[in-house]
Design a protein that fits this description.
By secondary structure, the chain is mainly alpha-helical. It has two helices and no strands. The longest helix has 50 residues. The model has no long low-confidence stretch (mean pLDDT 93). Belongs to the FtsL family. Part of a complex composed of FtsB, FtsL and FtsQ. This is Cell division protein FtsL. It comes from Montanilutibacter psychrotolerans.
Length: 80
C-alpha cells in the first residue's frame, strides 16, 4: 500500500511539474508579445507626435490645401 501511495504521489508531482513548465513557456511567450506591443506602441506614439506637429500641419495646409493666414483687412470681428 505504501509503495502504491509513493507511485501515485510521484505521478502527481510529475504532472504538476509538467503543467508548471507548460505555463511557464506560455508566460514567456505572452511577456515577449507584451514587450513587442510596447515597442510598437512607442513607435506609434512617436509617429503620431511627428504627424501632429503644428509646423508640419501648417506646412501641409499651405502646400496641399493652399491655405494662408488672413490679412488684416480680411479679418472680421463679430461682437455679441
Amino acid at each position: 500500500m505504501l509503495a502504491l501511495a509513493n507511485v501515485v504521489a510521484a505521478l502527481v508531482v510529475v504532472h504538476a511539474r509538467h503543467q508548471h513548465r507548460q505555463l511557464f513557456v506560455q508566460l514567456s511567450k505572452l511577456e515577449k508579445a507584451r514587450d513587442d506591443l510596447n515597442i510598437e506602441f512607442g513607435r506609434l506614439q512617436l509617429e503620431q507626435a511627428t504627424w501632429a506637429e503644428s509646423n508640419r500641419i501648417d506646412q501641409v495646409a499651405r502646400d496641399r490645401l493652399g491655405m494662408k493666414f488672413p490679412e488684416g483687412a480680411e479679418t472680421v470681428v463679430i461682437r455679441p
